[in-house]
Design a protein that fits this description.
Blueprint: E1 10-14, H1 23-33, E2 37-39, H2 46-51, E3 58-59, H3 76-93, E4 97-100, H4 110-131, E5 134-138, H5 154-164, E6 169-174, H6 175-180, H7 185-192, E7 196-200, H8 218-227, E8 233-236, H9 245-256
Parallel strand pairs: 1-2, 1-8, 3-4, 4-5, 5-6, 6-7, 7-8
Length: about 260
């Protein structure tokens, strides 16, 4: 019997995609839909999730955000201080991952940025290992949503992880973003899944619903992820276009229940 016939993915939803709802309202909806996590929240929001029996698959709040990240040495002290403070909180709150970013190129060569990110993550890795919380650097597309973002290819991210050399420094593999960059996401998942600690969804093109209105075959993608032995969360990060956004979320969960 294949792994995919034995395992239903654990579901998570990104808070920002449903910002017309309060976190308490979204938590109630998530609970009703069988979603275990609301992600991209900060530690101050953990108690709301806990009150509904939910967790945060990914914690958010790194200084500098997406554009001003680890590829610049002058950002490192503030980012490391953030991890020193929030890694213990994530551990206590049951959040398995904290996201960080490469930052934009802004004229910097990719190799220099890679070296700088490695330097910063090697400072963070011992802290992440100590607290048992994984630092995940997110891969984003630079062709549409995040112009000039440096970590815009799987190959760049894999080289980063290999050279940092810690089981607590991995990648957030965003299927929408990497497909938008023209990559073969199924081949990447099959080959590089040991480096992927978390996954995000989104329809291509447009980052909307993951149904048959877009080009990716999400049932096959999810089956591929499950067949690698992955037991973490699948984070729904599409922007709903339907009049009833919660119906779109419910349908996405059904699509991913293989």
């Amino acid at each position: 019997m294949s792994p995919s016939s034995q395992f239903t993915p654990r579901h998570s939803v990104c808070k920002w995609c449903y910002d017309t709802y309060s976190l308490d309202e979204l938590a109630q909806i998530a609970k009703r839909l069988g979603i275990e996590s609301i992600e991209l929240v900060n530690p101050s929001e953990y108690p709301i999730l806990k009150a509904h029996g939910l967790t945060a698959a990914v914690t958010w709040g790194v200084p500098g955000g997406i554009e001003n990240g680890l590829n610049r040495l002058e950002n490192h002290d503030a980012i490391v201080a953030y991890f020193e403070h929030d890694l213990p909180l994530a551990k206590q709150g049951g959040s398995p991952n904290i996201v960080c970013f490469s930052g934009n190129r802004d004229g910097m060569d990719d190799q220099e940025g890679l070296e700088n990110c490695i330097t910063g993550l090697k400072r963070i890795a011992p802290l992440a290992e100590k607290h048992g919380v994984t630092t995940i650097l997110e891969l984003l597309n630079s062709s549409h949503d995040h112009p000039d973002y440096m970590a815009d290819s799987t190959a760049w991210g894999i080289e980063l992880c290999r050279r940092v050399g810690s089981e607590r420094v991995k990648l957030l593999y965003d299927i929408y973003h990497m497909a938008t960059m023209g990559e073969d996401v199924i081949a990447n998942i099959r080959e590089f899944h040991p480096f992927f600690a978390h996954y995000h969804t989104g329809g291509v093109p447009g980052r909307h619903e993951i149904d048959d209105s877009q080009s990716l075959d999400y049932p096959t993608i999810i089956r591929t992820i499950v067949d690698t032995g992955y037991t973490g969360f699948i984070g729904q990060e599409f922007i709903p276009t339907a009049a009833n956004p919660i119906a779109s979320l419910e349908k996405a969960i059904q699509i991913c229940n293989i």
